[in-house]
């Protein structure tokens, strides 16, 4: 498989290159570089088999092709390696988080997303995190999954809480932020 080293470009209907998605509306800046979103959503979801020779060369070609989409953000992605001789799998965790905007505390919002580990919620969480906001995800994982937001676990702006919304939710906050959350987005089923 032959690959070129040039990055994949996205063009609008006028032929201009699209480099960001989102906009500023109602004082909320949601503009994000498109290559950062690609690195989150177009990351390789395949399992690499540990072997040598031609398989490694083929794997390098796959990585080169994937690099066209991720534009150098491959370091922010986790990988799985299957060892056929022992029928085991090893996971590498993220050594770094995807890049997020650096916002002043006055611009940073603290957002609670209930149902944030579901399909819609996890995409919203990704967007809010990339925009630089502090996000708390509240989910009971009945229909959602930890894997949808696992790439943010450990980030200083992210908190994941296993909790059912039918029960009261108590959270610690400092005296200055007595109205703790700037925004509460309810995507839970209950």
Automatic annotation (TrEMBL):
> Is the keyword Lyase in the record?
yes
Q: What keywords were assigned to this record?
A: Decarboxylase, Lyase, NAD
- One GO-annotated biological process of the protein: D-xylose metabolic process
This entry's Gene Ontology molecular function terms read: NAD+ binding; UDP-glucuronate decarboxylase activity
Show the Gene3D superfamilies listed in the entry. Answer: NAD(P)-binding Rossmann-like Domain (3.40.50.720)
Q: Which residues form the NAD-dependent epimerase/dehydratase domain?
A: 111-159
Q: Taxonomically, which superkingdom?
A: Eukaryota
Task: Give a Pfam family name.
Answer: Epimerase
- Coiled-coil positions: none
Which InterPro entries does the entry mention? Answer: Epimerase_deHydtase (IPR001509), NAD(P)-bd_dom_sf (IPR036291), UXS-like (IPR044516)
Does NAD appear among the keywords? yes
Cofactor(s) of this protein: NAD(+)
Instruction: List GO terms (cellular component aspect).
Output: cytoplasm
PANTHER family registered for this protein in UniProt: UDP-GLUCURONIC ACID DECARBOXYLASE 1, UDP-GLUCURONIC ACID DECARBOXYLASE-RELATED
Q: What is this protein called?
A: NAD-dependent epimerase/dehydratase domain-containing protein
Per the UniProt record, the lineage of the source organism begins with: Eukaryota, Fungi, Dikarya, Basidiomycota, Agaricomycotina
């Amino acid at each position: 498989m032959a690959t070129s080293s040039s990055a994949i470009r996205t063009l609008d209907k006028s032929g201009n290159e699209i480099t960001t998605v989102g906009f500023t509306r109602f004082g909320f800046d949601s503009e994000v570089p498109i290559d950062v979103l690609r690195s989150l959503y177009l990351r390789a979801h395949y399992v690499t088999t540990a072997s040598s020779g031609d398989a490694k060369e083929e794997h390098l070609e796959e990585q080169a092709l994937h690099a066209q989409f991720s534009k150098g953000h491959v370091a922010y992605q986790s990988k799985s390696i299957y060892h056929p001789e022992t029928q085991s799998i090893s996971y590498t965790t993220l050594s770094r988080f995807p890049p997020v905007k650096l916002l002043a505390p006055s611009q940073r919002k603290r957002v609670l997303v209930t149902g944030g580990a579901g399909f819609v919620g996890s995409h919203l969480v990704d967007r809010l995190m990339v925009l630089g906001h502090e996000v708390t995800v509240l989910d009971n994982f009945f229909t959602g999954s930890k894997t949808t937001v696992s790439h943010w676990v450990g980030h200083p702006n992210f908190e994941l809480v296993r909790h059912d919304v039918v029960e009261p939710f108590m959270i610690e906050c400092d005296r200055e932020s007595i109205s703790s959350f700037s925004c509460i987005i309810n995507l839970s089923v209950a």
